[in-house]
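Appendix B, example 12.
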Amino acid sequence: MPRPFSPKVATTNHLIEGDVIYFTDPGWSREHTDAAVATTEEEANALLERASQEPHLTVGVYLADAALVDGRPIPTHFREEFRTRGPSNYFHGKQAD
């Protein structure tokens, strides 16, 4: 039995700055809650197609699972939750020594 479809957002990294960005249709935002949400597989495919139209701004656009809370998307996977916090390119752990 196939899994039920879960809402999706299109996300990637900004090609020059490296920041995590989310497709808002039209445009991009650094806020996950601004992302356009696909609620069907057909909408998700169309969203990915539109988000992939700007290779001069983005690299590796993909769909990420999301949940809708008060009409706004929130990440459902720990990786995507982590990505909402911004870059982790500061010295920590062994790098701090």
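The first strand starts at residue 8 and ends at 14. The mean pLDDT is 87.
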